[in-house]
């Protein structure tokens, strides 16, 4: 979470946010992973809670997402990497979903159109930046 854009350890060297606001207005630096996990939890299948149905994907198609801790020297460690607990990074991990193209490539006559409109509707409903 400390490697997000505008965070102190972001690997691209972007300036640190002076007021804690993320790249998108209304977001906070370091909360991106929490927002992604929350979006997955809130996006339940139409048939009911995942616990009861066993379905992975919710109505809006947010892929399964969990909080994860990872230790690797390839991450940005400005004070050096020692393989200690202080070097552990925390963030979200999301299931890979193959991209079949943009919704712009799919016309309203195509059966996939409904699926294309779910994600933008979900982002508006949850005020998610869609990252």
> Alpha-carbon distance between the termini?
14 Å
Mean pLDDT over all positions: 79
- Helix-strand makeup class: alpha+beta
The low-confidence parts are none
Radius of gyration from the alpha-carbon trace, in angstroms: 18 Å
- In percent terms, what proportion of residues is strand? 5-15%
Task: Tell me what the structure shows.
The protein is of the alpha+beta class. The chain is built from three helices and two strands; from the N terminus they run H-H-E-E-H. The protein has helices at residues 32-42, 50-53, 113-126, and strands at residues 65-70, 89-94. A two-stranded antiparallel ribbon has the order 1-2. It starts with 31 loop residues before the first helix and ends in a 5-residue tail after the last helix. The mean pLDDT is 79.
């Amino acid at each position: 979470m400390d490697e997000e854009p505008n965070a102190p350890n972001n690997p691209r060297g972007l300036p640190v946010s002076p007021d804690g606001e993320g790249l998108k207005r209304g977001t906070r630096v370091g909360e991106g992973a929490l927002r992604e996990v929350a979006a997955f939890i809130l996006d339940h299948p139409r048939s009911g809670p995942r616990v009861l149905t066993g379905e992975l994907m919710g109505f809006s198609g947010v892929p399964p997402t969990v909080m994860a801790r990872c230790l690797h020297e390839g991450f940005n460690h400005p004070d050096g990497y020692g393989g200690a607990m202080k070097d552990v990074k925390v963030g979200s991990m999301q299931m890979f979903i193959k991209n079949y193209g943009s919704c712009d490539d799919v016309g309203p006559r195509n059966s996939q159109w409904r699926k294309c409109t779910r994600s933008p509707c979900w982002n508006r409903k949850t005020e998610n930046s869609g990252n």
